[in-house]
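seq as requested:
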Amino acid sequence: MTDSGRPRMGDDVEAPGRRRARNRRRRIIFSELALTITFTLAVGVGLAQREALDSTAVFLAGWLLNLAVLVLCCTLPWSRISSRWVILMPLLDFVAIGLARAAAGEALSGVGLLAAFPVVWIAASRVRTASAVAVTFVASLAIIWFPLVARPGPVTLGSFVDPILLPIMLTGLAWFVSELTKDNRRRQAALRASQAALQESVKAGRARERLLGTVLDTVSVGVLAVDAHGDDILMNSRQREGHAAAAPPGNDDPAEAELLIFGEDRVTPIPPDRRPVLRAIGGEDLEGEQVWVGTGRSQRALSISSRAMHDDDGAFAGTVVSFNDVTELLRALHAKDDFLSNVSHEFRTPLTSILGYLELGLERGTDLPDGVAGFLRVARRNALRLERLVEDLLAINAGTFEVHPVPTDVGRILAEASSSSAVRAARAGVGLTNRAPTTLPAVADPLRLAQAVDNLLSNAVKYTRPGGSITLDAGLDEDGLTVRVEDTGIGIEAEELHQVFDRFFRSSSVRSSTVQGVGLGLLITKSIVSEHGGTITVTSEPGVGSCFSLRIPQPAR
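struct tokens:
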């Protein structure tokens, strides 16, 4: 121990060794003490029948030898003596028992049974079974035959054979105890190995638990694991903070039904049975469920996802729920929408002025130089297109995007769109082919459909390399009106296809190029098709090209 009372490093190493030495000494002393006590009782019985003893002095000499062996067992430094020398103690006991039996005569011939004590000692030691059996057999024979040889008078074969039962019994006892001891040692070794493995497993489990806790507390996402009964199994620190934020004032440990959880409008409470956690406990897998928790300026937006757990039989065993705080993201998107709305409003005034003066100029067409009227009409058409784009942005932000389907000639609309894009395609060195029928009657909003096709053709021209081609096609069948724009452009990566219709999305290959854009054209196109009740799909392969197909259902004829 150090002065401070703490153990030194050596203490932890030496303590087990000292314990083993004490245990070894205790086993040796107790093994000998059991024989000495029994031997002493036998001596008392023998002295009470002294006249029946052949030699009282030899009888007592055997007992004194046994006492001397006990003294040796108590005094020898067994921690410094090799374990193989311990066997000398039971061998000396055999000598002591042999002396006592030789002096006991026929009246106390049972003294030889004391040999069972050293037999058990030898057999229970780490001596091999064969050695233990051999030593026992030889020693027990010496015990019964030594009196025959030492006693005066003739020795017959029968006198040697008659007491042979005792050596046989002791030899069998030695074999049984030796095998039982070995089996016990094997079981103890297996138990120690099992305990060591269990301790290692517990240690590894605690290490993994600490690692998992550290990882979960490090991530910026709240994590909650619950069992099949809805009881919490695990909750990281981020989720505990979120849980506290959703608690009503004055309630430090609210139940799930008491939490302040609202819908996307931030004011309508979500019914308890429709709350994401309870739905997840019911076995439903959630993906990006958005809710608001708390009230006032501390209200936070959470995106919630979950995955169910199942046991080996496939039964529901619980669920893991993640809570991602998207408050700042939603605020940024809201700020961007506000900015876009403000800019769109600012565009309106100059566009109105431009269109007004273009109209005045076109009204005086006869007074204009040759060709100027055509230039003004092109400027007016593009100004009207820009005005529609501003109106569309305002409508998308306000959620009031509308279309007015009427019977129209889609073939004429596609021809005009193709003609308008042909000039840009020619400047870009790209071939544009219109395979749509010249006349294709259908029900659609002509202005919106033209706008959608213009967006698709404009993208195809921008993202197709010189020498490439663009094909415009359309058809009408029982599924409705189909319009396809196919190009041999740069294509879109597979993992980005699901984002092409998102607001302000531009693929990585486009962002690294010099092609200009804000990522709104495809969003507007999808909105137009969706308002018609239709769908738009895209297939693409990088370096090969893309194909956009829009389908608009038609009324039954």
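Confidence is low (pLDDT under 50) at residues 1-14.
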